[in-house]
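Re-running the complex after MR caught last week's input typo. The corrected sequence lines follow. Everything else is unchanged.
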Amino acid sequence: MNEKKHVSSNPHIRSKMSTSKIMFFVIIALLPATGFGIWNFGYRAAILIAVSVGSAVLTEFIYEKCMKLPVTIDDLSAVVTGLLLALNLPSTLPWWMAALGAVFAILIVKMLFGGLGQNFMNPALGGRCFLMICFTARMTDFTYDGVSTATPLAIIKDGGQVALLDMIIGRIPGTIGETSTIAILIGAVFLICMGVIDLRIPGTYLISFTVLMGLFSGNGWNIEYLTGQLCGGGLMLGAFFMATDYTTTPITEKGKYVYGLALGIMTFILRHFSSSAEGVSYAIIICNLLVPLIEMVTMPKCFGKGGEA
Amino acid sequence: MAFTFKGGIHPFDGKALSKDKPMQEVFPEGEMVYPLSQHIGKPAVPIVKPGERVLMGQKIAEADGFVSAPIYASVSGTIKKIEKRRVLTGDMVESIILDNDGLYEEAERIRVKPIAEMTRGEVINIIREAGVVGMGGAGFPTHVKLSPPNPDKIYYVIANCAECEPYLTSDYRRMIEEPEKLVNGLKIMLALYDHAEGILAVEDNKPDCIRKLKDLTLDEPRITVKELKTKYPQGAERQLIYATTRRAINSSMLPADAGCIVDNVDTICAIYSAVIEGRPLIRRIITVTGDAVRFPRNYVVPCGMSYADLLEEAGGLTKEAAKIISGGPMMGFSLFDLNVPTTKISSALLCLSKDEVAESKPTNCINCGRCVDVCPGRVLPSKLCDMAEHGDMEGFLKYNGLECCECGCCSFVCPAKRQLTQSIKSMRKMALAARKK
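Corrected-run output:
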């Protein structure tokens, strides 16, 4: 037999899951929130989403071309970053700010640290926080139905009343993708069913946050207040789509719970004590920085040496 | 609830290709090749000379020392020469070449006494004499395994009937067609250890085997049939021991340290044939399967037949095979040349028309943690792989790199298609070599 055969080390079969498929599933899962955002905020939201996604992909492409690296935009991760960034922006933001945020997210946060899988901070949130610092006024300007208003989260922080049903459905001011709890949860359930994310991080995050709010917010176990806290702001979007970002979360089993807990504590502190009503983005990027430490202290014991089996 | 362990994967099992066809004996023609090293330990020493006529079942090479095993002719014929031949790993190994005369004239069998009259030592000696080695793939001489330092501290004899490797059905056919051999083989082993209970550990995707074995062991107080969850690598030694006995051993321990002895179906049947019938190990069941094979089936193959002839026997290929593997797709060895001999440890010949490894290009790790979730050794494959690729031996050892059992789950699930198992495996080899020095 003289024909050449492939040889390689075992195993000789591979699962069907791939990086681009995962990213594709995340994009699909974000569609309900995206669609709702466009419906809720109108065409301006659509423009921002398009600009943000386009700039993110283009930045990655140009950077890789300039640095003579293999072009990796087909893994769709830049699309996810661009989309997540857009969903975290108010619909009234000028388009060029969105573009700037996307460039910062991809170029500074992701590519300069080595590209996909090498960044220590969630790129979309890095971009958002960059914009928050540079353009604070524009980033916190929430216009709804033609009037500039406070978000429900800010209202309940000041002791006001909000319509909870509107918050759950999403007929409220806020950033493009964060308002509809239902739309976000539909996407989250899809991701869980496809095996892309699991509840270890978001579950611990949401539970610890709720418990802390119930114990220490001064409002007690007020269901309305707690529901408002859970459905308001970027908590749902953050918990299911950004706190679960693989690259910036611990890889160890126990670490995932510790990370979720840290997020809950951090979000509580920021939302309760800071001057702003919102705290999810900062909580997540701060906890991103803790990931190496969390991994170090949650190293699993291996099988046969006391590790769980 | 079925017994299991934490981690593992559920690959496409492909067993339907060959599982319902009865075993079929093959009678090869032409040259037979017997590598002197088909087992762990010292190679056997030839005791025949070129030109000599030998019979089927005649010893042609003697074990060299305790950790070694003799080799028998699996056909009758004339010894052609003794020379280095290529084996499936690509190495050149000293081998005995036999010209098969196609007569299958049988030699006198090993003399055995009725089992009741034999002592422990005598039984183990016959197993040694018959050249029985672990036929699951490792090839560890069975008589060594059966001689733990303290036989009274063996509490479990586990028959590994899991057959968790995709595509493989040889153990399944054995259990369907000759379950008595397996049960009686296990009884022989149990007789060696006064305090041991026997466990037939079968994955729950083989309910017919479980039923048969349960029926056969109804009146055997010392033997239980345990249903395992169907999951790869359920049949890996450490995972199997844990699933059936809740005892966990690490890489520096032997099953006997946890009071266990584990052997696979074919090995236990070989023990039966040796001790009861006086037959040396000269044949084994090989699953020839894959989407590119014309007649996927289990064949009873005389060891020494070449893979090329075996494939011919199975009707050859129906389409171009991109990859040909000796063994299963998870832990098997890919062959670059079919003109190598089958040995005591060849479990399958798998011909796949698609090479999924070549089709997937490794990309950046995205830290998704899938490898960590599936790793039965509970180590961090992605980190170990990084360390292996950077030559960081210290970190590799600190992160328990040696506890990897090379099952391949991490590479299988990796969405970035990284060669995790391969990198960790090579680093382990280096670490183990350094340790020996």
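None of the earlier attempt is carried over here. The two ends of chain A are 46 Å apart (CA to CA). The CA atoms of residues 37 and 176 of chain A lie 5 Å apart.
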